[in-house]
């Protein structure tokens, strides 16, 4: 038989056990493919000689993807996994914050790549324009406008419409 104090301790341990297991299960449920090995628990033995989970953790893959484009959704999944429980721990919030930083870094890399590609496209366009005097079709019209031997302009009408 347990004393009333021991009964109270057992009830608290049961509640803690239930909360800890639900917390870790939330990580596992949302994390799915990120979870490495399932939940692990630390236990305390109660006055009734039974073991109760009083702490737990779920190991998840927090590495970035192979590319920034893969990293963005993975970071979002990591953050969702970390914040899945109704009462995220300090460590859960820390992992979520790190995932947010990972996502922002990846978005920055994607933006830099897009700027670089746009710059390369602009450079390519510029080199094509350089081949025709750097002026596109206006270069044709300006090329028509030349001075003849007497110094009078030829093709001025074209230039005024260009």
Task: Give the topology.
Elements: H1 4-31, E1 35-45, E2 51-60, H2 68-82, H3 90-131, H4 137-144, E3 146-147, E4 153-154, H5 156-161
Antiparallel strand pairs: 1-2, 3-4
Helix pairs in contact: 1-2, 2-3
SSE string: HEEHHHEEH
Strands, total number: 4
Strand order in space, largest sheet: 1-2
What is the rounded Rg? Answer: 34 Å
Strand content: 15-25%
Mean pLDDT across residues: 84
By helix and strand content, what is the structural category?
alpha+beta
- SS element count, helices: 5
Characterize the largest beta sheet: strand count, sense, and whether it forms a barrel: 2 strands, antiparallel
Span from first to last CA?
103 Å
Please estimate the helix content. Answer: 55-70%
Shape: rod-shaped
Low-confidence stretches: 136-162
Provide keyphrases for this structure.
162 residues; alpha+beta; two-stranded antiparallel sheet; rod-shaped; disordered C terminus
Architecture overview:
- With 162 residues, this protein is of the alpha+beta class.
- It has five helices and four strands, in the order αββαααββα.
- The strands form two sheets. The protein has a two-stranded antiparallel ribbon with strand order 1-2. The chain has a two-stranded antiparallel ribbon with strand order 3-4.
- A hairpin with a 5-residue loop joins β1 (35-45) and β2.
- The longest helix is centred in the last third of the chain and has 42 residues, at 90-131.
- The N and C termini lie far apart (103 Å).
